[in-house]
Specification:
Elements (H helix, E strand, L loop, with lengths): L9 E2 L2 E2 H6 L1 E6 L6 H6 L3 E3 L2 E4 L2 E4 L8 H9 L5 E3 L3 H13 L3 E6 L7 H15 L5 E5 L4 H16 L4 H11 L3 E6 L3 H6 L5 H9 L2 E7 L5 E8 L1 H15 L7 E6 L3 H14 L4 E6 L2 H7 L4 E6 L6
Parallel strand pairs: 3-4, 3-8, 8-9, 13-14
Antiparallel strand pairs: 1-2, 5-6, 5-7, 10-11, 10-15, 11-12, 13-15
Length: 310
């Protein structure tokens, strides 16, 4: 829980407000935050690469490759692939802000899902050797999509509210394994293509309208918990997992990301708000990099609750 507070502590001749101006939050495009929030808060992000129909697009929250264009191509049978952020792009980002005298907190998508965390660590070491006094913290959030986005959102809100770099880092480390990710997948073809389903299971599942319920475990891996028949039951299963794992709803930030199925996302939001007075509900598209592996129609629900036990 993030509390507003008055803190008159002075940091060697500078106010705490000035001190916070020297800290910057960076992340990758997997965080799937709404573009307007990213731009309003000047969150520095690096985009993963989506390879689609012979062209390469940087995932930049729908600016270059709009969500409508991407999902339109996906529904017409396009089979995109993705690439992680390379070390040199991380070096350029870190070098820029270290030279400006800033401390960097970089929140990375799960190291079990992408190599971005490893690349960021290599870049951090390079810049620390290159520039004396460089202050870079890279955190494996063990999260993805809007779940990762919740950690970024809260870190930014803490920074804007006057929290110190150390307080932000400690909060993320203490809460990242309390962050729940529950996904339902509509299009099984992309799971088959990624090796998560056999061709036979994908074909049978499609015929029987089976919707896999997927979660991120405490190691940061994607796991299949169960298979649910029918879209409505699958959406209800997300609500069930929410109710099983919530702790403090009054201060809860909920994230819902969707594979171009906004009506389902709004329906899920309505289900939550009918019963619980949560602090904030963030809704956004699943970006091209994640959606390349989950397909159109994916719906996720993310929130901080009990510790992940599986």
């Amino acid at each position: 829980m993030v509390k507003k507070r008055i803190n008159k502590q002075v940091y060697i001749g500078i106010t705490k407000e000035d001190y916070n101006m020297n800290t910057i939050i960076t992340t990758d495009s997997s965080s799937d935050l709404p573009l307007e929030y990213v731009e309003k808060n000047n969150i520095q992000t690096l985009g993963l690469i989506c390879h689609l129909e012979g062209q390469d697009y940087i995932d930049d929250f729908g600016k270059t490759l709009t969500y409508e264009e991407f999902y339109g191509k996906l529904r017409k049978g396009a089979m995109p692939t993705t690439s992680q952020i390379n070390v040199y792009r991380f070096e350029d980002l870190f070098r820029k802000y270290v030279k400006e005298g800033k401390s960097i907190i970089h929140l990375s998508m799960s190291s079990k899902i992408s190599g971005c965390y490893s690349s960021a660590i290599i870049a951090k070491k390079t810049i620390e050797e290159e520039i004396k006094g460089a202050d870079i913290t890279v955190i494996d959030t063990k999260s993805a999509s809007i779940g990762e986005g919740i950690l970024v959102y809260t870190a930014v809100e803490m920074l804007n509210g006057g929290a110190s770099k150390e307080e932000i880092i400690n909060w993320v480390e203490e809460n990242k394994l309390k962050l729940h990710h529950w996904f339902i997948v509509e299009d099984l073809i992309h799971l088959k293509r990624g090796g998560r389903l056999s061709s036979a299971k994908a074909n049978i599942g499609t015929l029987l309208q089976i919707k896999p319920l997927i979660y991120i475990d405490k190691e940061g891996n994607l796991q299949n918990l169960s298979n649910i028949r029918g879209r409505k039951k699958a959406i209800k299963s997300l609500m069930d997992k929410f109710e099983e794992n919530i702790v403090d709803t009054e201060n809860l930030v909920v994230g819902i990301s969707h594979g171009d199925c906004l009506s389902d996302a709004l329906y899920l939001k309505e289900m939550i708000l009918e019963k619980y007075n949560v602090k904030k509900v963030l809704i956004n598209h699943v970006g091209p990099v994640i959606a390349s592996h989950t397909g159109a129609g994916m719906l996720s629900l993310c929130f901080i609750g009990k510790d992940r036990v599986i």
